[in-house]
Fold each of these.
Amino acid sequence: MILHHSSFYDVTEKMAIVIGVFSFGFVQQISGNMRNAIGALVVFFVLGFIGLFLTLNKQKSETVMA
């Protein structure tokens, strides 16, 4: 029996796939328009970039203080 140990990033990737596909389908079903569903995914990307930017700025400020 082969055991595969999943890392945190593997689990996070799978969760992101499920959430992205679900939100796309949900928004498309509710609105009846695929453009709105794509807009929902764009919101996820924008929030991700903002989170990345804030994290990088925090790391830079901690590096300068140290």
Amino acid sequence: MCRRIRALTAVMAIVAWRAPADEGPMAPGAAPPPAPAMLVKEAVTGMELLHVPGGCFQMGDVLGDGDEEETPVHEVCVDGFYMGKHEVTQGQWKQVMGSNPSRDPGCKGDEACPVDSVSWSDVQAFLGRLNAQAGGVRYRLPTEAEWEFAARSGGKRERYAGGDDIDRLAWYAENSGRRNHPVGTKAPNGLGLHDMSGNVWEWTADWFGEDYYARSPRDNPPGPAGPAGPNVDRVIRGGCKTGEAASERTSRRSYGYQRTSSDRGDKIGFRVVRRP
């Protein structure tokens, strides 16, 4: 199921931007450091990654129509990073791993569709092989905070990734035909990122903690140190092809299972990030 709807909580919040970390005064006459490239390409598969400038934002149910685990709304600041413009595709997975595990009946074998039927541990194996060929660049999963900041176009008050028009932005239960679709066929959000609402859920690096927001650190929160119980595991974000509109919201939190094979299903994929 793509829905686990709980109590609604009304919360209001504003976005607060943070300048990049102060690296000390520049020497007189020194040229400022070059700005990060807006787009970089990963060398092995050609994946495109877009720059997400660092900043601070109010994380959680800022629109007041979410679930209990999306509260309390709290300030979070993240450093800048690059994020995949699209979910990792079946073709890109095959380039690195040599085979294609995807099972979505409408997208199986289509190299432009997001890879699916990969567990969190499978993704770590993919990242290990990719990083071994990446010439010192390290790719990883985003933290939950990085994911939400990027999905909300840099921390804006967005219900879906790019605004309120879900049909323009997301493949979900009402328009997907209950199948996955090639990446990038819906409109991007304000940072140019596609499919951060809908298509497939996306693995993040964090363990799921239902009450983590009440104790989250402000700066670059890493998520809980470990599993909070036997039936909760790694955070997934973004909703999927069979989810109703409420499940595709940018603040919506759910989880998959790292420690079993049960989440090698066709509703979960991922995208990668790296540091500038």
Amino acid sequence: MAATVAALIPIGFFLIFAVGEGPAGWSHYIQALIPIGLVLLAWWKPRLGGYFFIALGLLLGIAYPIGASHQPLATTALVELIVFIPTAMSGYLFLRAS
């Protein structure tokens, strides 16, 4: 249960932007589909889903600051706190539940 709640943080973040941008926000729906699919996988196979969540959180958490080097440090840190840390934490919690 706690792992699913942790996964809902980045999902909600993407869906807020998707709804707020109207028809142009379709790309945020696609970004939300990946963690939604991983939650479904983790409910079925918690260990496998946990490993995927951790890998996704770590890989994107490392790649994002490299790709967004033009943004201020505060913006990058906020995105890391809202999107990537809860994703990796959700994976850890799914592994603990398995």
